[in-house]
Write a sequence for this structure.
């Protein structure tokens, strides 16, 4: 059987995503109780990072250790990837030694090529186009705080039509909630990405309109990794898109705020919002650990049925 990969959310069907999310909640409880859950004893995860990371690296490495396995960190600076060894060759070699591989890189096509040549499951730890692991944690967090994310829910994405926005669009298509994307002209998600929402994605200019009545307000950095040189220009383009208390006041009364982090207070989000009572960003960050443990179990062990 070819390995299952997780390059975008759609690599798992709705039932499988629900299974992973339920298991993530169970694993969180086990972790809290100190109950052993070494389901991946002896397994080895490879982590290829071509961009920086705090949460993704630590959550995957700690998660694999807690499941009884171990993790190997690789970056271009200290592997042959940085000296031009083709990704196809790297995939063939690594997947003969490892049980599962996570990659964070720039072009999404690179992860697709890696997966094509890999004998073992490949997980997208962020590409320029998608960040599906973050969405698992975000959905788990919303469910913990507010219950089901379904046709009754409106989510407002404010800011750049970036990799996180694309994964939210994909989630809107799968889970059936409404996603309002409030973004400035020229920074919209691509048409193919909006199509992933299957009619549930609505791109609008006015951030206040996007946020009106929303149950969840989400934002992200204005300049993603790889766009550092555009920082100045983006600060101007996004000046009216900071998530402020005034903006949150337009959302539903019990709306929650999320940000995948790292955050820039005073840019995409005001300090009193991210540090305020509606913010669930620390639970969101913690849930990377639990959601990815459940994902790795699923990719390596299936549902057990
Ligand atoms: N949210 C997220 O992926 O964080 P890191 O870049 O720190 O991994
Ligand atoms: N959009 C951000 C997400 C960081 C986790 C980036 O790609 O840099």
């Amino acid at each position: 059987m070819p390995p299952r990969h997780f390059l975008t959310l759609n690599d798992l069907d709705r039932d499988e995503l629900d299974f992973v999310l339920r298991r993530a909640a169970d694993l969180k409880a086990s972790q809290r109780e100190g109950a052993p859950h070494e389901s991946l004893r002896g397994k080895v995860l490879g982590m290829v990072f071509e961009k920086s990371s705090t949460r993704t690296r630590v959550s995957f490495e700690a998660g694999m250790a807690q499941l009884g396995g171990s993790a190997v960190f690789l970056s271009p600076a200290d592997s042959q990837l940085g000296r031009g060894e083709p990704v196809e060759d790297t995939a063939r070699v690594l997947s003969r030694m490892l049980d599962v591989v996570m990659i964070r890189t720039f072009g999404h096509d690179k992860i697709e090529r890696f997966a094509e040549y890999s004998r073992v499951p490949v997980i997208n730890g962020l590409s320029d186009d998608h960040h599906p692991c973050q969405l698992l944690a975000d959905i788990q967090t919303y469910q913990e705080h507010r219950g089901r994310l379904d046709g009754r829910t409106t989510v407002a994405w404010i800011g750049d039509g970036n990799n996180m926005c694309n994964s939210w669009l994909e989630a809107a298509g799968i889970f059936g909630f409404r996603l309002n994307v409030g973004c400035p002209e020229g920074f919209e998600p691509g048409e193919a990405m909006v199509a992933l929402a299957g009619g549930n994605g609505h791109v609008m200019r006015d951030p206040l309109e996007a946020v009106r009545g929303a149950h969840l307000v989400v934002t992200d950095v204005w300049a993603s990794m790889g766009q550092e040189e555009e920082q100045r220009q983006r600060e101007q383009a996004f000046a009216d898109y900071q998530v402020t208390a005034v903006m949150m006041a337009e959302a539903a009364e019990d709306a929650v705020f999320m940000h995948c982090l790292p955050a820039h207070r005073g840019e995409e989000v005001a300090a009193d919002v991210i540090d305020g009572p509606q913010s669930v960003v620390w639970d969101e960050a913690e849930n990377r650990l639990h959601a990815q443990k459940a994902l790795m179990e699923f990719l390596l062990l299936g549902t057990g049925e």
Summary: The chain is about 40% helix and 15% strand. The radius of gyration is 19 Å. Residues 132-284 form a domain with the Rossmann fold fold (CATH 3.40.50.1370).
